[in-house]
Design a protein that fits this description.
This protein is mainly alpha-helical. About 55% of the residues lie in helices and about 0% in strands. The chain has 21 helices and one strand. Helix 6 packs parallel to helix 19. The longest helix has 22 residues. The protein is globular and about 65 Å long. The two termini are about 40 Å apart.
Length: about 475
Amino acid sequence: MSRGERVAIFALPALLCAAWTVFAGKDVNWDLLNYHYYLPYEWLHDRVLQDYFAASGQGYLNPVGFVPFYLLAASCHSVIASMALAAMHSVNLALLYLIAWRLFAHRDPGERRLLSLLAATVGGASAIFWATVGSSFLEPLLTVPMLAGVLLLIEPGRAHPLAAGLLFGVAGALKYSNAIFALAALPLALVASPRRGRAGLAYVAGGVAAVALLAGPWLVLMGREFDNPVFPLFNAWFKSPHAPQANMFAGRFAIADIGAALAFPFELVAPGPLLYAEITAPDLRFAALVVAAAAAFIVTPLGLRRPAGALTGADWRLLGFFALAFALWLATSVNGRYGLIVLLLAGVCLVRITERLLPISARAGSSPTAGPRAGFPSTPMNGHGASPRSISPSRRCRWQRWCRLHIRSPRSSTFAGSTASRRARQPWNRSSSATAFTYARSAGFCNCAMTAGRGPRSSRPMTAR
């Protein structure tokens, strides 16, 4: 991936999201008017012990995550503040592209870019995401470190559990509902290294360090003043006298039973009011993902899968995280904003499974696991880096410059002389040149670089006709 492409991956989504938030208009959501702006104001102006339930129970959530919004809104024009927030939120799309880039490593660069772009586009095709881009909500901001953590954990042999733990810890410290996704990523950390215990401890240590840094002071303050570090949440356990002794639960979107959970992906196609969001937000991707996964489950035992498109370790890690995160989300809140990481990754998983099912094979040699074919060695045979199997290419190489050559047997006097001089006159320099000539004569394909060409079979001297 070139440097210019890396810049474009982040710059283009930033421009798109900034333009969208200007078009969508000023953000005046209820949470903003109630506590998004007040929380950092209360904390920075030392009013925590003076204002009692000024913003209801939400007035005692960790205010650190809202500080960037507060500073922007207090010092900049609302358009500038919204565009700056939208640029931060756009990193989600860039990370979706990078995750998909890992998944489509078996494709050639052109197809890999196209499929990664498609996956990022389908991943971002969520009404919940675009409704929160450029707004004061924390969800699109904190999904960024979680997606970065997933990116650090899915690639076999190159995982970084400590850094991933830090990133998921940041998301969980600034918004407590993200803790379930940190839990869903723990299995990824455990399989990140042959030393599973060490990798798991590194992941947990990173998460604990992030929570201690970003939420520790606030938790200590709430515990000292209200006898509940997460006041007023879970007060049935901590029994603070300053709030009802009950566990607050956001149950307005709760799933009733297992049947409702199984029907949920299909209900999203035409959702009723308050199915999973405050707005009407149809989403076809989850139903399509269920159908695609069922189709993959059916065709795999029948031997209809393509080796180049088979699911790899990175695929299974991402799909495993998505399935566990989706299940935990359904079991807890089912709030679309709280499960934004699930909504974004659904598109990436859908495109990968669909590509797995399509009757399109990866190009020869593009798979990292592709080995020698037709008894030829896998090392290059000439200065151009071509292997013997590329002597007879498929029709996709027809745009290359062709020449019509006649091939003479290697035993001809044309190649007489010392070994050094003979190799100097040949466009290859390995001992298997005779085998390559035999293959080329039988196929009738050759050009002056011995990589691609087409001409009639002949044993006359090699001269252009």
